[in-house]
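Revision sheet: structure tokens.
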Amino acid sequence: MAKRKTIALALGSGGARGYAHIGVIEEVLARGYDIRAISGCSMGALVGGIHAAGKLAAYRDWVCELDYFDVLRLVDVTWSPMGAIRARRIMDELEALIGDTRIEDLPIAVTTVATDLIAQKEVWFQSGNLLEAIRASIAVPGVITPVQRDRKVLVDGGLMNPLPITPLVAAHVDLVLAVNATAHSPRNQTLEQMLPPADAAEEEAREAALEARGGGFSDWLRGVRRGAERIFSAEKEQALEDQQGMAFASPVGGVPLPPGDASRLKFEALKSSDAEPAPGSEALAEPQAETGAVTQGKQPPSAAEPERVDENAPELAWGKLDMMMRSFDITQATLAKYKIAGYPPDILVEIPKTVCGAYEFHRAAGLIKLGRHLAAEALDRYEKGSDG
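Predicted:
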């Protein structure tokens, strides 16, 4: 009897696209590989931790039943200036699933990666409460409130390491498989375009059924999101103004002023050309004219022609949340490329970020199928190459 090959999995961040990790794990197990270690951040930490706890099948069944309304009910809004969502409801569901599990007691070596905003470095959870580690790793900055403990402010591990291959360098396994859920796709393929025809047809039918059952719910949801974003933005801007205002010292012995007075002082200081910067702050330098000859035909910025607008370009209905998440996706995709170049895995599965939005958590069934399909292709390539 042939010995089973041992494998370590690096499961990256990517929001809802992280559901694809479930399909990847299913394909790896179906081929007889022995998973010995898992490193994950954000959604990868969640899926990897649940698998190590032996509850992936139950989690899969649950998320595949979620529709628009179910996902919306899991969103618990908070007015905290550090995030819009507490994530208490989703964590309650996970607690009911895996209970009080400790990482060091799992049968698989698990590393959950988060980011410490204070120390500006990665934090690896390799022991301690599994749920607490997952909660820290999924805290998308500005969206989900951070975890504050031991003088650390912990947020999404994808902020610094969206594809945590590094923790697996010392793993004693035959091969390492990495799943990049923020991959760049020049063809901008959708989920339906990437699935095999039968699965694509099933996914389209499922989406149509959800839309019909919702009675135009997606349009209503977009309206709710726009309204919520306006409320969150107003609250966050006021909170940020108050926090920044408190940072400005008062004229009396450096004692912080109340938010309103501090904001007024800040405005007056910036307005006055003779005002000196507050202690610890940087002076605002006036732009200096360049010395030397002026390049012929080059106009100063103030005299530049206004930017031309392409009237035929499609109008983008992006809100602040869309802008933030797309920017976060781009940063993560770039960082993931460097991680892959620095620590090349034996097998790489790439989930394009165009297949769905980061918060389309009602699309689990299709994304799991996509993960399994792409994992099968990647494993086929590897196995054919290793046999040759």
